[in-house]
Amino acid sequence: MIKFSDIEIVESVLKGNKQDYSILINRYKDKAFTLTNRIIKNNMDSEEVLQDAFVKAFFALNKFKRNSTFSTWFYKIVYNSAISYVRSKKAQEDAQTNSFEDYSELTFNESADDIYKSFNNVELLAVIDRLPLPNSVIVILHYIDNLSLGEIAEILNLSTSNVKVILHRSRKALKTMLVSQEKKGATI
Amino acid sequence: MNNNKPEFEKLNYILGKLAPEKTSDNFTNNVMNKVLTSKAPVADKSFLYTIVALFSLGIVATVAVYIYLSPSSIMDKLGFVNIGIELPELKLNDLSGLLHFSKIGEGLKAIGWTASILSLFTAYYLYESHKTIKDNLKSKKS
Description:
The structure holds two protein chains of two kinds.
Chain A: H1 6-14, H2 21-40, H3 43-59, H4 70-89, H5 92-97, H6 100-104, H7 121-129, H8 133-143, H9 149-156, H10 160-187
Helix pairs in contact in A: 2-3, 2-4, 2-8, 3-4, 4-9, 8-10, 9-10
Chain B: H1 5-16, H2 27-37, H3 44-69, H4 71-77, H5 92-141
């Protein structure tokens, strides 16, 4: 089966083959959903926001400049849509409750390297959810969407070095959280 | 930061295996329904610009034809004085030729105006539908 590039699909849609847009939807829906869910933290609302983001992207396809990849352009729309939704719902306060600083202050347990290997996907995502908004988004964009630091920086309007620092801190916090959670689980 | 690389090796491995969450089964269909049932085409703006450009061109052409073919009335209104030209050797055949040309001009004028009015209505209709779609999208978001 021939795999068309994002740009080829975009050009086909712009020529009037609207049905081809479903290829892009299928290609990005799950990854983008994982991203919106980290921000919105509600499956139904995340899907609704993501659907609107896809529709918004469709009607803005003619504005898509080829100087960035489609994924970067699209994730920017998704991220902004999710952030706007959260702001409108004033859910930002809840997301900020777990401040990153709380985790960065925790000491890192070097000897517990093997402990957290038993975490499954859902548990890992739940731990990522405990990170504050920019951190969890960066982790998802980097590990699930496989975006480079430069692409993430473009989506979030941050500098590449800033993204690098946040990613490093996020990993440090994640490791601490995974270790402490595993310890809690072991004692129960 | 490089010193921390081994520290995060295992974590990187685990995070690298993270799988995306699944959307509901009818997600793609829902989005495609929204996209396909919408009246606005993808390149709606460029289409709108084309119509507006055609409409403007129609207006300019009509005005030009009108001015060109009705020199007496327009020139009079603009304050020009008609200068009577004596054509002592003008024959009846020449006059009929001029009258024929004038009839063609009248026809062109009528076509020009009709095209302009039609373009105006089309442009207005497109503008309204574009606005409605935009409003619908906004209300869905809110």
